[in-house]
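dude i think i finally got it to work??
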Amino acid sequence: MKKIAILATLGVLAAGASAQAAPTYTPAPPPKPHPTKPSPKPHPPKPHPAQSHRCVPRSVGYNASGTLVSASLSEEGHRRYGGTLEVDLRRANHHAPTGDQAFTLTGARVRFHHGVVPGSPAPGSRVKLHGKITKLAKHCPTAGFVPAITVKKVDISQAKHRKG
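look at this
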């Protein structure tokens, strides 16, 4: 029992001594603010543009398909053709016009699928057009704006044969 009492007394003394020896916490001083340098020249305010930068026409992808009305194509290089193409468009993206449309090609890649005569495809052939169209953002004034279509690739396939 004497050993237990001695050990308990030593434990209490050790705990008290460590509590007294523990350093007290003091927070670090706040950092000093950086000195601000005066600007050598004050910047003048930028003038606002007359028209919003958002309402500038942008070039976006154009895809359309329809049937061939007439074609006048001349070869300009390997699989490159120039000339005019008149197509009755059934589908077009980006609110592009549909119906009977005429296109002027300059160095466009033209692919004539199986059964189509290169240079003079038959009227009624299926046509797919790929290229770029200029477009305005939503809510921009459209007065006097006409979208410009640039055709870069044309696929011409045979007309579908109908049963009956």
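The chain has a mean pLDDT of 86.
im so relieved honestly
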